[in-house]
Amino acid sequence: MRTTSGVLLSRFAMEIATALVTASIGAVVCFGSLEFGTGWGDAGPQPGYFPFYVGLILIFASGVNLAMALVHHRERLEAFLTTEQAHRVTAFFGPMFLFVLVSSFLGVYVGMILYLFCVMVFQGHYPVHKALAVALSAAVANYFLFEVWFQVPLLKGPLEAMLGIH
Q: Sorted alphabetically, which keywords does the UniProt record give (predicted)?
């Protein structure tokens, strides 16, 4: 039996979980399409016809994947996600999650400035003055690109309101 140190998730567990989740999605699609009819009417297929069969295909394919995972499972632990990989994923998605959270309260531009500044300083080890210059430049460039040229307003927060940016 071969083990991998620092394994957080095994490949076998993820194969089982993925097969079950995709089968569930297929079942939801099938169930939802029943509301619209899955047969063939006078004018052709009813609205739920194609989604129903796509859902069935998804359930069938998920069943095949589940069976393959069970058949090919051996007495070994093959890593899907190790501790080191989890740290890398968290280092990437953690700041993005915080960007979304901050942007929802303080606006996209403030969130963008904070995100770029923190990632450049703490992960990229750039000097503070360069990180601040890039973060502010990106926010200003995005403001002109979206708000002025394309006239697509982005989410703004209290700072933009204080500065009179609508």
A: Membrane, Transmembrane, Transmembrane helix
User: Does residue 137 belong to any structural domain of this protein?
Assistant: yes
Phi-psi region of 38 (alpha: psi -120 to 50; beta: other; left: phi over 0): alpha
Supply 64's token pair: 């095949």
- Output the CA–CA distances (angstroms, integers) from residue 99 to 21, 45, 66, 144, in the order listed: 28, 45, 37, 20
Q: Tell me how far apart the alpha carbons of residues 135 and 124 are, in angstroms, rounded to a whole number.
A: 13
Q: Which residues pair with 41 in a beta bridge?
A: 44
Domain that residue 13 falls in: 7-77
Q: Which of 56, 77, 98 is the last residue of a domain?
A: 77
CB count within 10 Å of CB 124 equals 12
Same-domain status, 42 and 89: no
Render pLDDT for 38-59 as a digit per residue (tens, 0 to 9): 888 888 898 999 999 999 999 9
